[in-house]
Amino acid sequence: MDADPALAQARPSSSLFPGPAKQRSWEDDLTTLLEEALRRIPSGRVSPAFDLAAFRADLAGFDFTAPRPMPDVLFWVISRLETGLVHLTHPRYFGLFNPAPSFPSQCADRIAAAFNPQLATATTSPAGVELEAHVIRAVAARAGLPDGSGGHFTSGGSEANATALICALTRSNPSYAGTGARAFSGPPTFYVSSDAHLAWYKIAHQAGIGREAVRLVETDTAGRMDTGALAAGIALDRSYGRVPVMIVATAGTTGGGMIDPLHACSEVARTRGLWLHVDAAWGGGLIASDRLRRALAGIETADSVTIDAHKWFATTMGCGMFLTAHPDVAAQSFHVAQDAASFMPSNDRQHDPYVTSGQWSRRFLGLRLFLTLAVAGWAGLGAHVERSVRLARTIRLELQARGWNVVNNSPVGVVCAEPPPGSLGARRIVEGVVASGLAWVALARFLGREVIRICVTNGRSSPDDVDFLVRLLDSQAVRTVTSMPFTRLQRGECNDRTQ
Ligand SMILES: *Cc1c(COP(=O)(O)O)cnc(C)c1O
């Protein structure tokens, strides 16, 4: 063999692949910087007071010509993120379903990053694929799905929901795999409540059946799907030659946390021969609690279920799950022929995720929930869920005691509230709270009204944080009348938080 004389000189890049001592020192830097930043966050602003122009100018300095020292860059990135993000780890972030990530799930991310296993096939990562399958089976069993159920981890709820639609279409008409929507005798349709997640439109678009395939079913006065209207809508669509394929029951609507009537939806689906998908992206967290899980009764009858671990199970993002009683349909929907993928080490419709799911290269997401469940157990996760429901109930009661109107009645601990008559509107109050940096809440629409949406998503939020939020909301609501309560609140309780 001819020696390549340059090769002897061409050592591995020490910035990309440092030696053990250097790597250890960078790891220590990283740990210290993160620890310090995260320790400061609870006493700082929840939402950024961010100078985007200055940041852009800083960024422009990174022209990637002269390499910079790793510790400097780590410091720069972490300090900019500290001031340039809405902080989900802040105990007064009462926001969308994004969690403060549990520590076990952060460890899982680090482990996955170090080995960087490829989970496309069980041949390449037998331990990883088997571990994920074990967690999926455990979650499916906990949700009450039948023996033999399966599924896989997804990038989030949207991918899991998209998977459900492809499975429903494929089972309804196997020719969909070959000829797409043209395989149907008329336009395929599926049914979601008018409070369902908006991503269904994108999902229908991507599946090639078009956004008009999303049929919105009206809700009852509590914000749950009206199953009479569902049955009528299906019959009407059929009379026009459309081809209904799936009913989606949302278990925990994104806005108001309402759970569609699962048994009734299931009955409509069964009698009409449609796939029943339960979108429990957030609300599915209730399965962890022995006390609260009965709110999801009926979920066990679903053909498929979405649960996001990166919502109520507090893993890092994105980590969703697609669970199904029909793993064979998923394999039928996502298969590729062996000879077409000859570079792949195997093509096993039982075990290889790349032929049973939408992804090809696959990150080791399941480890996050595995580590979480292994160290906390269902009891620990259940206690986490119950705690956030309890804190939400306190928010509801405290607001009501101050004359606020709580518009929703959700078992999953999302509070949608309106200020007392004569106050500023919900939108102005949310803007005031967010601008103050003292807490974070969202504006939402529920039953056609603009409401303040409050959700406990941080396992470290305390009764004091909840109390603080209630008084902040109340002081913002009456700000037109007198600015006193707000001023007193800031001076008395958070001197250093408003700088
Ligand atoms: C969050 C959510 C989704 C979307 O999930 P992502 O993880 O954000 O992709 C879908 N449905 C419901 C009910 C949700 O709450």
Question: In words, what does this structure look like?
Answer:
The chain is α/β, with parallel strands linked by helices and 499 residues long. Helix content is 42%, strand content 11%. It contains 16 helices and eleven strands. The chain has helices spanning 5-9, 20-40, 52-60, 70-83, 103-115, 126-142, 157-172, 176-179, 199-206, 227-239, 262-272, 327-334, 366-401, 426-436, 463-477, 484-493; strands spanning 150-154, 188-193, 214-217, 243-250, 275-279, 304-308, 320-324, 405-406, 414-418, 442-446, 449-455. The structure holds pyridoxal-5'-phosphate. Pyridoxal-5'-phosphate (PLP) is lined by residues 97, 156-158, 161, 197, 199, 250, 252, 254, 279, 281-282, 308, 318, 320.
Structure, briefly:
The protein has helices at 5-9, 20-40, 52-60, 70-83, 103-115, 126-142, 157-172, 176-179, 199-206, 227-239, 262-272, 327-334, 366-401, 426-436, 463-477, 484-493, and strands at residues 150-154, 188-193, 214-217, 243-250, 275-279, 304-308, 320-324, 405-406, 414-418, 442-446, 449-455. The protein is an alpha/beta fold and 499 residues long.
Helix-strand blueprint:
Layout: H1 5-9, H2 20-40, H3 52-60, H4 70-83, H5 103-115, H6 126-142, E1 150-154, H7 157-172, H8 176-179, E2 188-193, H9 199-206, E3 214-217, H10 227-239, E4 243-250, H11 262-272, E5 275-279, E6 304-308, E7 320-324, H12 327-334, H13 366-401, E8 405-406, E9 414-418, H14 426-436, E10 442-446, E11 449-455, H15 463-477, H16 484-493
Parallel strand pairs: 2-3, 2-4, 4-5, 5-6
Antiparallel strand pairs: 1-7, 6-7, 8-9, 9-11, 10-11
The chain binds pyridoxal-5'-phosphate.
